[in-house]
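input
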Amino acid sequence: MVFCAHLLQNSSASKRGISPTVREGSETGANEPLLTRGLVPRMTADKNQAQAIVISDAISKVLDEGSVAALATLIDATTDEKSLVVGAKLLVDESPNRVGGLGDSDLDDAVANQTQKFLASRREAETFKVEVFAPELEMHSGASVLFERIEAEPRLVIAGAGHVGASLARLAALVGYRVTLVDDRAEFVARELFAASSEQAIELVQAEHWSDAISEAIGNGRGVSVAIVTRGHKQDEDCLRASIVTTPDYIGMIGSKRRTNFVLDKLREEGASKDQLKKVRAPIGLDIGAVSPEEVALAILAEIVSARRGGAGAPLSDWRRK
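output
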């Protein structure tokens, strides 16, 4: 994401999205599609700059939409690979739509296929030799491609700013989540309660209506986790009702089995679908024997991270005891 941030800062088009679909002044004199399967060989400096702008716009769109993509950069090529230019880039999203190119359409096809495997691995970055993922492309076997995951920073919406909610907000901010903490009591979301430097980025929201505040905080739900840790059934119901219709990546609700079943049954009676309620993790968190608010917050965040990263939530040393 360091490269991406630099690319976005230096593109005058970084905030326009990628709605234009043609580039004027192509080699044939006609308009040329931006979404291509490969740029022409031996890109000139102008074409390199044009590609950077197009990819910058595409990255901006990925981040704005909360979606996920992979940026593939050619970082090494053998001297006889005249069609390839070190530094060429190809952006591939989950669809998988493509923007840019590495200089060879067959290589672009192979790289696009590999990006889907890379995204599924949930790694942040990884470098591969072409011969590893496309051994049939013998002419490019010596080339190396860097794959980088492109996505907005993860967001966490916390409903309830009591002891657990406040502890969770502080911990999640330290881990790198963009946190929104919501409560209907102004004194619980006062800025002076979150005065440490690491807490300044926590967004504090006093809710006039729980459902409206939670819906607004969640937005389109992409890259968003929701932790419902309010003080009562009514607040839980309002927050969960708003959460399940906005389809965030993760929804968890605190409480005993009895309390959480009460809320889930209430929403089921109101017409919530089985699939909607099945996504709710209740009681929230991993079983680490947590007692204090800080420990409960740790158990909750551990489950959220595990869900985001595809972790099993099991001890890493389990294999020693099998």
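quick obs: Residues 1-43 have pLDDT under 50 and may be disordered.
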